[in-house]
Inverse folding.
């Protein structure tokens, strides 16, 4: 387990397309994760709650990014305890291609395998085989290789 910090900012009156840029800046500064959730503010205004998970030493830097790059006028932050599964980024061979996936273990057992989207997307575009088929094939290959 580890202690991280969660930052939250309510954002309205901002073009939602700009969120992708804000996300990229936040991640480039070293945040562990960033996400947004839809919300309704007073007077029925639709908005987003921007949430960031980070190490304590990044709080000031990331608050600066949020305040400069969004329409938010304040940021809440608080410590959170996180338990993260052991993760391994690996490569599996599928139909003559090397594709990446993430294998997650909890208590020594495989609990999740995720195919790398960009690899599967490229394979789908090059072969005409549906993206979901590539994702399934990667997961099946990884389960054969890593599941106990």
């Amino acid at each position: 387990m580890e202690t991280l910090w969660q930052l939250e900012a309510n954002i309205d009156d901002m073009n939602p397309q700009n969120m992708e840029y804000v996300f990229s800046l936040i991640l480039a500064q070293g945040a562990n994760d960033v996400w947004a959730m839809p919300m309704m503010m007073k007077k029925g205004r639709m908005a987003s709650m921007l949430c960031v998970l980070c190490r304590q030493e990044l709080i000031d830097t990331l608050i600066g990014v949020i305040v400069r790059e969004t329409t938010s006028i304040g940021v809440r932050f608080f410590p959170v305890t996180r338990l993260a599964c052991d993760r391994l980024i690996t490569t599996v061979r599928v139909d003559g291609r090397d594709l990446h996936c993430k294998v997650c273990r909890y208590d020594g057992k495989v609990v999740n395998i995720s195919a790398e989207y960009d690899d599967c997307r490229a394979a789908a575009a090059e072969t005409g085989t549906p993206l979901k088929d590539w994702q399934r094939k990667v997961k099946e290959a990884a389960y054969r290789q890593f599941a106990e």
Notes: The beta strands are 2-11, 33-40, 46-54, 76-82, 86-94, 97-106, 109-115.
